[in-house]
Amino acid sequence: MALGFIKKVFTFGKEKPIEQQAPEEHLTPAQAAAIEAEVEPHSREEDLPVSPVDPVAPVEMETAGGPAADDARDVVEPVEPEPADEEPSEEELPPLLPGAEENTEIGIVPLSLLEAESEAGTESSPVSEPVLPKGFTTRVDEVPEPEVVAPRMTWYQRLRAGLARTSSQLTGQITALFTKRKLDEETLEDLEDLLIQSDLGVETAMRITGALSAERYGKDVTGEDVSRIMAAEISKVLSPVAKPLQLDLNHKPHVILVVGVNGTGKTTTIGKLAAKLSGSGLKVMLAAGDTFRAAAIEQLKIWADRTGSEFIGTRLGADAAGLAYDAFEQARAKKSDVLIIDTAGRLQNKAELMAELEKIVRVLNKLDPDAPHTVLQTLDATTGQNALQQVEIFRNVAGVSGLIMTKLDGTARGGILVGIAAKHKLPVYFIGVGEGVDDLEPFEADDFAKAIAGLTH
Ligand SMILES: Nc1nc2c(ncn2[C@@H]2O[C@H](COP(=O)(O)OP(=O)(O)OP(=O)(O)O)[C@@H](O)[C@H]2O)c(=O)[nH]1
């Protein structure tokens, strides 16, 4: 009866079986960390049915809740539960997560909307700071002193900080170029060269110098004039590609395949995405499709535990397409809303890597002709021009549907995103501005353009 009671209190709109609950949902961060540190790797006895595609090693399937979930329930000290017939009154129940009301027919939902809703609900959101239901308490000595948390930087502050090196280098060079000179042909050519060297691409460089010439040719011009016009022109290039990542939750699971060269931040970005999705009340499963790099499997499992997502992995060297097949089957059986599949960024050679990606797509197609529903490519901003070529390669092989530009914090090459947008016209859904779980921001064209041009918001 007590378990049933807990289930009623912690269900936020979407029915979520009690064993699915991530331990973190009703623990303070310190308690969750303590439990995570003690948890032994979960050993799996029975094998999942082997994929008919290729025999693979026993696929390890475990919920991120795993053993910790049981320990977690031990941590909450139940005192006399409410008498069975007394339903907790409305005001006692934690508020539903916005958008997680009974509506189970969620149609096409832009992820940024889900995120905005969960952000809106964060101060009272029970998921991060659950209010223990009446009749329960935790031992007083276990309740850690609330640590003083510095106010979180706004989106724009984090972006400005992330792009600081790009913008300071660019605006510094522009200022040096425009030392109170009247705008002439030579200055325009110098500016064009400078913009091309900043990875903005020839097309965008010419747009900027053309707009500047139209407005200021033969007149005095300052660095601020150039920054203002540069921001406006970059924004025009980026606006068409700044789109929300749409999830079609009418067909579960929505399969997101993440591809990209090794080291571009695939696994990290998957963790960040999983945090946003599960924080919005969606059921997420992560599949360790990078069976080439041992650390990648373990890394993804840690992200699954940290974000309360389900995890499915297999042994090193196993067939990635077989893992993808099993993951899809498991996600469908467990009614996961979203399945995110990690892939290898490196194999013996590029041809092998491309062949593996093609096979994964083929196998998923067999299970759902529309799957993978989204193919995200991660691009490392610090690699500059190389990122342009990478889009070409992966787009042809895996049918990339959108981009996530990572490592924009601390790099002086953030301009490459403009060059890629102008050339490939692929949606840019998010940008990575750090290694932390929150360091993934929805891509906003205007903010990005102003940040690169060094303009205050
Ligand atoms: N500064 C910074 N580091 C990042 C960002 N995203 C990822 N990283 C770091 O980049 C390194 C590589 O990230 P991974 O997620 O392992 O990259 P991957 O593409 O999965 O690599 P492979 O598994 O080798 O294919 C890690 O040290 C990450 O912490 C970011 O936005 N900013």
UniProtKB/TrEMBL annotation:
Topology relative to the membrane: Peripheral membrane protein
Stretches with biased composition (Acidic residues): 77-93
InterPro entries (alphabetical): AAA+_ATPase (IPR003593), P-loop_NTPase (IPR027417), Signal_recog_particl_SRP54_hlx (IPR013822), SR_rcpt_FtsY (IPR004390), SRP/SRP_N (IPR036225), SRP54_GTPase_dom (IPR000897), SRP54_N_sf (IPR042101)
Compositional bias (Basic and acidic residues): 14-27
PROSITE patterns named in the record: SRP54
Domain SRP54-type proteins GTP-binding per the UniProt entry, residue ranges: 427-440
Catalytic class of the enzyme: hydrolase
One GO term describing the cellular component: plasma membrane
UniProtKB keywords: Cell cycle, Cell division, Cell membrane, Cytoplasm, GTP-binding, Hydrolase, Membrane, Nucleotide-binding, Receptor
Coiled-coil intervals: none
Catalytic activities: GTP + H2O = GDP + phosphate + H(+)
UniProt cross-references to SMART domains, sorted A to Z: AAA, SRP54, SRP54_N
CDD domains: FtsY
Positions of the UniProt region annotated as Disordered: 14-98
Family from the record: Belongs to the GTP-binding SRP family. FtsY subfamily.
NCBIfam families, sorted: ftsY (TIGR00064)
Listed name of the protein: Signal recognition particle receptor FtsY
Organism from which the protein derives: Pseudorhizobium banfieldiae
